[in-house]
Amino acid sequence: MEKTNGEKLREKLFDVKHSGFENISDEKKERIFDFCNEYISFLNSCKTERECALFSEKLLKDNGFENIENVKSLKPGDKVYYINRKKAVYAAVIGNAMLEEGLNLIGAHIDSPRLDLKPNPLYETDGLALLKTHYYGGIKKYQWTAIPLVIKGVIAKSNGEVVNVNIGEGMEDPIFTITDLLPHLAAKQEKKSLGDGIAGEDLNILVGSMPYNDEKVSEKVKLNILNILNNKYGITEKDFISAELEVVPAFPARSLGFDGSMVAAYGQDDRSCAYATLRALISLDNPCRTSIALLADKEEIGSVGNTGMYSANFEVFIANILDKAGQNGHNVLEKTLCNSKMLSSDVTSAADPTYADVDDKYNAAYLGHGIALCKYTGSRGKGGASDANAEFVAKVRHILDKNNLTYQMADMGKVDEGGGGTIAYILANKGIDVIDCGVPVLSMHAPYEVTSKFDIYNAYEVYKAFYQD
Question: What does the DSSP 8-state code read for residue 349?
């Protein structure tokens, strides 16, 4: 039946939203699922920023990238990287154009909300040994009780030795947990607000109950735990002072749903975008403009510190590239940055039908509808947003349209409902054109987050197209 004039006009003028899984070939679906199987393996081996950096370095090396510190000169086609203090990654494929003409940048972050052990964490009370924590990033504290937990990180001894710690991932390993009140005794707790039901100081990790067999010593359970740690890692209680030990969920990343169309995992904010960014970069060969991946640390606490996006280390990396390409000079670094364009590849919230009242449904991101472009983040009156200009938004749209890639334009929640931020404004302050461009996520910042496999693969395709433009 021939379409009516109204139907034709609607098809021409409306921006109709639909699932990315609609009308795709079996071959494309297979590619999506194969890519996401590799993504799930990545998530299961990378639950901390250090593990992500280590994984990234190996993947980069396996694909022909060299540490820039070992390279004397650079030419088009060369591939280099730099690892900043084992927690942040900068990688580049040198393009044919002069660097001063600008770079194609994609920046994600590899830290996620978690619990960190305090400098003096171990104590004993009422016959139980526990570890005190300080939560990192924006969490709902009640979500971290009564779930299986893993302890990961490093212990740096004063003699220079660094001990790697990973307890709870292996099936033979013990796990840990934070206890919660039983409903029968929780009358007072249940009268508190959701945010106050669990106090930050009560996020204490249960780690032991067996006393050391010696009647003459006190704190027998604590002594037994320290003895176990000393036998395994050669540490004493004082070594906790110079440790970085993170407590993360023990849940493995898995396919979700009867149709297997989604991924459930800890840390998909923002490792979903980081993985897609890395895979897109390593697929490049001889791009026109030099293409760079930034995998930053500390985004969840404001991008501060020498591994966060505010650090000068990123600009030092670019200056190093300019030097070794023989293109440095007066104000060249500043001109290079001001002529650059960037996707801030950070996740955004997906519309949740169970909590529909927090979203403007006409401007929300939907799971499975492709990558979400966010012109601005911030909160309420756009506070803290970089707010991409119309011309740059149009440029990004053009790249995606000409490559027939699915995408959606989104805002994060209703105007006065809250908001969020990414690293976009930090790079925009350096003169770079930036727009947020990331994967929609359900249950963001929870110990178990949900994404669509279509969106994960779509992010990879979008980032690859941006790099190649």
Answer: E
Which CATH fold topology does 5-112+266-468 show? Aminopeptidase (3.40.630)
Would you put residue 443 in left (φ > 0), alpha (ψ -120 to 50) or beta?
left
Residue with tokens 């895979």: 279
Q: Could you state, in order of their start, the residue ranges of all structural domains in the chain?
A: 5-112+266-468, 114-249
In this structure, the strands spanning 205-208 and 128-136 are antiparallel
Token pair in block for residue 265? 């995992």
What is the average pLDDT across 375-395? 85
Q: What six digits make up the tokens of 227?
A: 């003895």
Residue 420 has pLDDT above 80, yes or no: no
Which one, of 27, 25, 41, lies nearest residue 255 by Cα?
41
Nearest to 436 by CA among 417, 414, 415, 462: 462
Residues 170-216: pLDDT tens digits? 888 999 999 999 999 999 999 999 999 999 999 999 999 999 999 89
Looking only at the bridges linking them, the beta strands covering 128-136 and 149-156 are unpaired
pLDDT of residue 344: 95
- Give 114-249's CATH code, choosing from 2.30.250.10, 3.30.1660.10, 3.20.20.10, 2.40.128.50: 2.30.250.10
Residue 194, number of CB atoms within 10 A of its CB = 9
Tell me which of 76 and 386 has the higher pLDDT: 76
